[in-house]
Amino acid sequence: MPDTDPEEKTVKRTQRPVTYRCEWCGQESTELRYPGPPPHYHAACKTPAQNSIARNRMQAWRERNRQQQQLPPPRDYINHNR
Hints:
The protein is an alpha+beta fold and 82 residues long. It contains 1 helix and 2 strands; from the N terminus they run E-E-H. A two-stranded antiparallel sheet has the order 1-2. Strand 1 (16-21) and strand 2 (28-33) form a beta hairpin. It is elongated, with a radius of gyration of 27 Å.
């Protein structure tokens, strides 16, 4: 009879080769990865890709913000020039 607790489990996580296509440069690559979703980018492409995505996202946000700020200001119903 083993000396282990019956509720104690041992989980062995092993890496496996995963082949994927980099969304940034389009090159196919195989890496050893733990189970989970496949990567989107190579290690070399990851930083430039994320920077570009963030830049585009901020540019769109700034454009939306600019459009909202170009609305006419609310009317002031009090005449201060009497």
